[in-house]
Amino acid sequence: MNSPVIGKQRQAALAFIFITVLIDVLAFGVIIPVLPHLVQQFVGGDTSTAAYWTGVFSFAFSAVQFFSTPIQGALADRYGRRPVILLSCLGLGADFIFMALAPNLAWLFVGRIISAATSASFTTANAYIADVTPPEQRAKGFGMIGAAFGLGFIVGPLIGGVLGDIDHRLPFWFAAGLALVNFCYGLFVLPESLPKDKRTAAFDWHHAKPMGGVKMLREYPQIWGLVAVVFIANFAHYVYPSTFVLFADAAYGWKEKEAGYVLAAVGVLSVIVNVVLIGKVVKALGERRALLFGLACGTVGFLIYGLAAKGWMFLAGLPISALWAIAAPATQALITRQVPPDAQGRIQGSMSSLISLAGIFAPAVFAGAFGFFIGPHAPVRLPGVAFLIASLLLAIAAFVGWRYARPAPVAAATDAA
């Protein structure tokens, strides 16, 4: 494998990228329990109105990412992964300070837009993993990124809930500090993963365009079914940022601390799944069946969430839903096997554009449904309606995966080993 990161350096690079993603997730995680409540505070305390505005925030975040992620992917393919990750961390640190000082809803909204434009490290980290790991080990590598997410969501929301209980602005200052520490960390220790001879000769303006990045996927028809799974599954995943915090309050009376504790529990389960189970499950079942198994567990878990009348019923669904995490790295591994090294960044950027495209519409669906079914005109009060919609979407994704995803040829793994 032609990479500047080999042998022991590869293990060190994976550790570096793990910590980089972890700190970024921590920064995002600490504001999750407080951002909807801060929005609620700005709109006068009405939960239904806050749900709609939270949906607007999510819509804008994804719309901006739809335009920015292909550019970031093209930049990473042209100039390397390291500078894109560093600029992302620096931009996020400055933006969290901006949001901490926001005096009203409008300025908080501007801060979220800036945050969307600068949050590139997750997409670039996926390309980084593809750079430094052989094809047969990529599911495990992507699982490591999932573990960083899980660990970040153990500590992040827990800290955010405690700090938010003191002051709604405090988690933003804490997040700013984390992002700037991450920038300093990466500046001194994060190695470049993409050698110059593997980079694109010039900045690819065609694929840097939002739909240009999506159109690039037409060059790889063999991954269309998997890309559809990524799109549908991520559409369903937007139910969390769109509704969870306000849903937990409306359904069970959970405030910042309680929501933080639950999200921390989700993070614990995610780490267990990503660190302990993904490698074993993918090895035992193969990437295709691991993908289907994960989506089936997500379908059942969201169904339990949507129908849970009591808080303990919701918590009972957490271990089942956590197994959904197996699907993402299995899907990523199947996709990266069929894409050349010099296109990994742009493919990841294109898929991130699709995810952002899903995020443009998903908040309107989830937040709108939630806001309506807890509002005065609802035919029946059903706070969990958004999770029921997400469960249906994951069932559709499982069908698409069953129909179109195929195991990677054995020769592909053998040749690249």
From TrEMBL:
Main localization, broad class: membrane
Domain of life according to the entry: Bacteria
PANTHER family (alphabetical): MAJOR FACILITATOR SUPERFAMILY (MFS) PROFILE DOMAIN-CONTAINING PROTEIN, MAJOR FACILITATOR SUPERFAMILY DOMAIN-CONTAINING PROTEIN 10
Protein name stated in the entry: TCR/Tet family MFS transporter
InterPro entries (UniProt xref): MFS (IPR011701), MFS_dom (IPR020846), MFS_trans_sf (IPR036259), Tet-R_TetA/multi-R_MdtG-like (IPR001958)
Pfam families listed in its UniProt record: MFS_1
CDD domains per UniProt: MFS_TetA (cd17388)
Residue ranges constituting the Major facilitator superfamily (MFS) profile domain according to the UniProt record: 13-409
Single GO term (MF): transmembrane transporter activity
Keywords: Membrane, Transmembrane, Transmembrane helix, Transport
Listed transmembrane segments: 12-35, 50-71, 83-101, 107-129, 141-164, 170-190, 223-240, 260-278, 290-308, 314-334, 354-374, 380-402
Membrane topology of this protein: Multi-pass membrane protein
Location of the protein in the cell: Membrane
Any GO CC annotation of this UniProt entry: membrane
